[in-house]
Amino acid sequence: MTDKPNIRDLSLEQIEALIVSQGKQKYRARQIMKWLYQTGATSFAQMTTLARAFRAEMEERFTASEPALDRVQTSADSTRKVLFRLGDGLAVESVLIPGKNHWTACISTQAGCAMGCLFCLTGQQGLRRNLSPSEITGQMTMLRRHTPEGLQIKNIVLMGMGEPLANYDNTLQAIRILTSDHGLGFSNRKITVSTCGLAPKIVQLGQDICVNLAISLNAPDDRRRSELMPVNRKYPLATLLAACRDYPMPGRRMLTFEYILMAGVNDSLEDARQVAELLRGVRCKLNLIAFNEFPGSPFKTPTPEAVSAFQQVLLDHHYTAILRASRGRDILAACGQLSGQAAAGGAPGPA
Ligand code: SF4
User: Fold this and answer.
1) Are 265 and 306 a contacting pair, CB within 8 Å?
2) Is the pTM of this model over 0.85?
3) What's the 40 CA to ligand 1 centre distance in angstroms?
4) In this model, does residue 351 exceed pLDDT 60?
5) For 299, phi and psi rounded to 5 degrees?
6) Which fold has domain 7-61?
């Protein structure tokens, strides 16, 4: 593992400041960004529009590496789970989810996760470490290069391994590079940050950048939410919802609340009525996801009838409530199932 800093951790403005301080012209920074994010260079040696001596100088000081693609598993429904190996040998996973005319990329922001949500395989592992900006954006540049022919990645969800807002600065820097015209050029309307509910960071995110926000809700009251999601003991529902109400949503954008239905735990009709009451007045939609069982998981998948009845209560209360089909279950790529562990033999290997 190299101990040189990665040029991909820097924004355009930071690269500009760096090379101006080296006595070079500012526009060279835009050339470097173009090589990194549009042409796909992974070393300075490939950046042939830069003078040879400058390339050598940069190569001496920086790396331009991406996470290494370790393995790809393809689900029966075409979902692809990609295992990346980081410079220190740790592994993280991303998921490519097929849509009608595009792909959605679900990427990771941490190796493991400290939040300990009971229903999540990533959460059972604890936190190994935060990902750097280059390790977050590097999943995207690699995925884009390895996306099957024909369809483009149109949406990015930061919903893979880890809690993005617990790795706030690196996540923000990565989003700035993902949305920069000189970076990957994604619209911020196409990027969704998912959180388990770090209320102060939700407020900060709303002040710093304008991206979509998804909140993992999963229970209609504090008692059960605190049992399922330890974060709720620190930021209970009233605090979380106050932060959500203040989150800026221009135009017709809505917050998304994710609700994982677990049989006999949070899937009753009364629970649905409580959720409807809880979210009253919040401009939002709900994504309902039937729990995906994983080896050793303490919860069970609810029946399709229970899920439909839960949805109907929310529809009756005039919410947009979408049943999200779980993708990639057979390769443990569905919500809450990412482990960052390569499995043997080609079959199996997050929120
Ligand atoms: Fe972490 Fe998200 Fe899993 Fe909770 S659901 S443990 S925040 S990865």
Assistant:
1) no
2) yes
3) 31
4) no
5) -115, 165
6) DNA polymerase; domain 1 (1.10.150)
Superfamily of 68-348 according to CATH: Aldolase class I (3.20.20.70)
Q: How far is the CA of 6 from the centre of ligand 1 (A)?
A: 27
What is the structure's pLDDT at 150? 67
Give yes or no for residue 183 CB within 6 A of ligand 1: no
Q: Lowest-confidence range among 122-126, 254-258, 316-320?
A: 122-126
User: CA-to-CA distance for 38 and 184, rounded, in angstroms?
Assistant: 7
pLDDT in tens, 252-278: 899 999 999 999 999 999 999 999 999
Phi-psi group of 264: left, alpha or beta (phi > 0 → left; psi -120 to 50 → alpha; rest → beta): left
Is the shortest distance between the CB of 167 and ligand 1 below 6 Å?
A: no
Is the Cβ atom of 267 under 6 angstroms away from ligand 1?
Answer: no
48 class by beta-carbon count within 10 Å (0-12 exposed, 13-18 middle, 19+ buried): exposed
Q: Is the dihedral of CA 158, 160, 161, 162 positive or negative?
A: positive
